[in-house]
Design goal:
Elements (H helix, E strand, L loop, with lengths): L7 H4 L8 E4 L9 H10 L4 E4 L10 H6 L3 E6 L6 H8 L4 E4 L2 H13 L3 E4 L6 H4 L3 E4 L5 E4 L5 E4 L2 E7 L3 E12 L4 E2 L8 H7 E12 L18 E4 L2 H5 L16
Parallel strand pairs: 1-2, 1-10, 2-3, 3-4, 10-12, 12-13
Antiparallel strand pairs: 5-9, 6-7, 8-9, 10-11
Helix pairs in contact: 5-7
InterPro entries: 3-oxoacid_CoA-transf_A (IPR012792), CoA_trans_fam_I (IPR004165), NagB/RpiA_transferase-like (IPR037171)
GO molecular function: succinyl-CoA:3-oxo-acid CoA-transferase activity
């Protein structure tokens, strides 16, 4: 039951080129940055990534993207990464865009063994009708477009069928974790992390604080250890190594 491994390098050693990865976090909040760095250090490429976004140019998944290790990404927001835009428009990267709530539910469904579900999100758009560019050619033409999806009417409302997502591996970050893999996430870091963890066949969690089994109140646990196969305890330096995309506050004026 002890799922703790000694290092991030050991935790990702069996991630091979061509693997699919579900990666937690929203923007740069709650991203498994140390595991991403460890994957980068292995040199694997042709990765197929599922994540809400793809980091920024020099942090998070942006590190893998800049090194051209990612072949395909399924995301809902990609607006903070210029290299992502360049690779997509030049035909170097395949991109499947999904409504954010739909992406979250596809990951959750994958973890729950639900193969597909109907949702109203995207009905009447290219999400349902098909035709969204997935990959461009070098000349700017569309090389691959999304296919149309099944729609069905329930109680007079049209819904579109969305397929669940499962991946070879999942990388997540938690505030606390015990040796059995039970995880607690901090505030807004509890966004895509539990969902990504559920979708991975092998889920690896980097935790800021490792505790012993029984120390976590069962009511405190956000993700049970059944979804987690490996746990890595971060050092104090790694815990403090965090960034945000864009600082939007200004210095507080002194009050006379």
């Amino acid at each position: 039951m002890d799922k703790v491994v000694a290092s991030t390098a050991q935790a990702v050693t069996d991630i091979a080129s061509g693997s699919s990865l579900a990666v937690g976090g929203f923007g740069l909040c709650g991203i498994p940055s140390e595991l991403i760095n460890a994957v980068h250090a292995t040199g694997v490429d042709e990765l197929r990534v599922v994540s809400n976004n793809c980091g920024v140019d020099d942090w998070g998944l942006g590190i893998l993207l800049t090194a051209k290790r990612i072949a395909r990404t399924t995301s809902s927001y990609v607006g903070e990464n210029k290299e992502f835009e360049r690779q997509f428009l030049s035909g170097e990267l395949e991109v499947e865009l999904a409504p954010q709530g739909t992406l979250a539910e596809r990951l959750r469904a994958g973890g729950c063994g639900i193969p597909a579900f109907f949702t109203a999100a995207g009905v009447g758009t290219q999400v349902a009708d098909g035709g969204l560019p997935w990959r461009y050619s070098s000349d700017g033409s569309i090389a691959l477009a999304s296919p149309p999806k099944e729609t069905r009417e329930y109680n007079g409302i049209t819904y579109v069928l969305e397929e669940a997502i499962t991946t070879d591996f999942a990388l997540v970050r938690a505030l606390k974790g015990d040796r059995h893999g039970n995880l607690v996430f901090h505030e807004s870091a509890r966004n895509f992390n539990p969902l990504a963890a559920m979708a991975g066949r092998i889920t690896i969690a980097e935790v800021e604080e490792l505790v012993e089994p029984g120390e976590l109140n069962p009511d405190e646990i956000h993700l049970p250890g059944v979804f987690v196969q490996r746990v890595v305890a971060l050092t104090a330096e790694e815990v403090s190594n965090k960034r945000i995309e864009r600082r939007t506050v200004r210095p507080r004026e002194d009050v006379a």
